[in-house]
Design brief:
4 helices, single chain, about 110 residues, mainly alpha
C-alpha cells in the first residue's frame, strides 16, 4: 500500500499548472500588444519626422492619435491597465521617442480616445 496515488492532490496541481500557464499566456499577450503599439507609434513618429522634422510634441501626439486604429489603442490600454507606464519602456526601441510614446499612451489611458 505504500504506492498509493492521491487523485485529489494530482488534480490540485493540475489546476495550479493551468492557472500558471494562463497567467503566463496573458502576460505574453500583453507584452505582444505593447510591442505592437510601441512599434506602430514609433513608425508614425518617424513618418511625421520625415515630413515635419520640427513638429512639436503636441503635433506628434495629435498625428499618432489620428493615425492609430481604435482597436490598437484599446488593446494597449487594456494591457497597460494591469501594469504601469514604465512597462512601455521595455518596448520603445528608439529612446528619442520615449517621452512622446509615454505621453500618447498616458493620454489613451486617461481619456480612452
Amino acid at each position: 500500500m505504500g504506492d498509493t496515488f492521491n487523485v485529489n492532490q494530482a488534480g490540485a496541481v493540475g489546476r495550479y499548472a493551468r492557472s500558471d500557464n494562463n497567467n503566463f499566456f496573458q502576460y505574453e499577450q500583453k507584452k505582444q500588444t505593447l510591442t505592437e503599439a510601441a512599434a506602430e507609434i514609433q513608425k508614425l513618429l518617424k513618418q511625421l519626422e520625415e515630413k515635419n522634422p520640427e513638429a512639436t510634441e503636441t503635433e506628434q501626439i495629435d498625428h499618432v492619435n489620428a493615425a492609430t486604429k481604435p482597436d490598437l489603442k484599446q488593446r494597449a490600454i487594456a494591457a497597460l491597465k494591469d501594469g504601469s507606464e514604465t512597462a512601455i519602456d521595455e518596448f520603445v526601441l528608439e529612446n528619442k521617442y520615449l517621452k512622446v510614446v509615454k505621453a500618447i499612451v498616458k493620454g489613451w489611458l486617461q481619456g480612452n480616445t
